[in-house]
Amino acid sequence: MQIAFTISTCELILNPENSDIQVNETVIKPFLIKNLKKIRENEDFYLYEESDKRDERDEKDEEEKEKDEREEEKKVENEREEKEKDYKGTFSYQNSSDK
């Protein structure tokens, strides 16, 4: 946690694109979460542009994966409903008094 906090603080302070240096909970929280994830998953730390591009790519990949999973679930549900429609009414039951 301390390492991720230190890296996050450095990212904020040393970022040349950051003209207004503020380190408060609201500002640092997204950086801290990102860096904790990198440490947990044993990922490398990159320069700003490389890291940002990689993070964006990972987010897009994750969003696409979730979208694909939702589409697959819908497809399976639709197939199940179609099968139910096909089977509906194809079975007849005999009452014991019908003999």
Automatic annotation (TrEMBL):
Residue ranges, compositional bias (Basic and acidic residues): 72-88
Biased composition (Acidic residues): 58-71
Region described as Disordered: spans on this chain: 47-99
Name the record gives this protein: Uncharacterized protein
Provenance organism: Rhizophagus clarus
Lineage: Eukaryota, Fungi, Fungi incertae sedis, Mucoromycota, Glomeromycotina
